[in-house]
Amino acid sequence: MTVPNILTFSRILLTPLLIWFLLDHRLNEALIVFFVAGMTDGLDGLIARLFDQKSKLGAHLDPVADKLLLVSSFVLLGRLGLVPQWLVVIAVGRDCIIVVGLAVLRFQQVPVEIRPIVLSKLTTLMQLFTVLISLASSLVPLPTWAYGGAFYVTGVLCIVSGFQYLMIGLSLLEAGRLRNGGKTHFS
């Protein structure tokens, strides 16, 4: 097992701890866990690239770890009133659409290379930042406009990158249909 994969697994294992702290309204502890988990997200990719430790397992696990961490965070921060409900719906909805889209492509036996687009990486970074400032709001309060700006930028990035993934998925599905003589596996 590579170091990046170990870091990714650690992010997955930190997610239940984060959930527990958030459910128990222990924001400072949740902030520490989220910060450590966020650091593993940056380190796993950096180490994989620098030391040529990219793997197929890592390519599949990393987005799963991100989705678990971020979806859990957004849902619970929304429940606590630290993130607006509309942003929770947009962020979680985007991830649901991506997962369902991948499932449809796999079901249709359309080959998919799991590789995040640049806009998606920026979206994930902004989501991490939004969760971080929301968790830290009691320790380092920011002006209201700063939270609003982060929420709106995150929302727009989620929508745009989700739409971009939708377009990519539809083009892959169409290419798969053309390879199969116009037939789908739903037929």
Protein described:
The protein is built from 6 helices and no strands. It has 187 residues and is mainly α. It is globular, with a radius of gyration of 18 Å. The N and C termini lie far apart (41 Å).
Order of helices and strands: HHHHHH
Number of strands: 0
Number of helices: 6
CATH topology call:
Four Helix Bundle (Hemerythrin (Met), subunit A)
Largest sheet: none
CATH superfamily membership, which one? Answer: CDP-alcohol phosphotransferase transmembrane (TM) domain
Please report the distance between the alpha carbons of the first and last residues. 41 Å
What percentage of the residues does DSSP assign to strands (E)?
Answer: under 5%
Describe the secondary-structure layout.
Layout: H1 3-23, H2 27-50, H3 56-79, H4 85-107, H5 118-135, H6 144-179
Write a concise synopsis of the structure shown.
The protein is mainly alpha-helical and 187 residues long. The protein has a single domain (3-179), classed as CDP-alcohol phosphotransferase transmembrane (TM) domain (Four Helix Bundle (Hemerythrin (Met), subunit A)), CATH 1.20.120.1760. Helix content is 78%, strand content 0%.
